[in-house]
Amino acid sequence: MKLLRGLRREVTHGGVVPHGWQMAWYEPRRRTGVYYPRPLNWLLQAVREFIYRVQLAVHAPRLECAQGVYEAYDVAGWLEEGPEPGKEN
């Protein structure tokens, strides 16, 4: 991990990007672009996206919770009957 830290460049607005480096991701709160050398950039971008999607899946509500939310929303039974009463398609 220390090796990757040495290859990492963080550049803010107006900064100079080293030749041959591409942005792997952007951190909006810090207004900083994180840059790595070209082939490594694609790999780290994919790893970051994979980790993000796994975290979404792990923290998503279970099916039973989602069904409870659906039933709470369908208090008047409108979802099963079609459009809301008084509204036309």
Written account of the structure:
There is one protein chain. With about 90 residues, the protein is α+β, with helices and mostly antiparallel strands. The chain is built from 4 helices and 3 strands. The protein has helices at about 1-5, 40-60, 65-75, 80, and strands at about 10, 20-25, 30-35. The protein has a 3-stranded antiparallel β-sheet. A hairpin with a 4-residue loop joins strand 2 (about 20-25) and strand 3 (about 30-35). The longest helix has 22 residues, at about 40-60. It starts with a helix and ends in an 8-residue tail after the last helix.
In short:
The protein has four helices and three strands, in the order αβββααα. It has helices at residues 2-7, 38-59, 63-73, 78-81; strands at residues 9-12, 21-27, 32-37.
Uncertain stretches:
none
The helical percent reads: 40-55%
Shape summary: elongated
Strand content: 15-25%
H/I helix tally: 4
Sheet bearing the most strands, described? 3 strands, antiparallel
Order of helices and strands: HEEEHHH
Give the class from helix and strand content and strand pairing. Answer: alpha+beta
Radius of gyration: 23 Å
Strand order of the largest sheet: 1-3-2
Instruction: Tell me, rounded to a whole number, the average pLDDT.
Output: 77
Record field, number of beta strands: 3
State the end-to-end distance. 57 Å
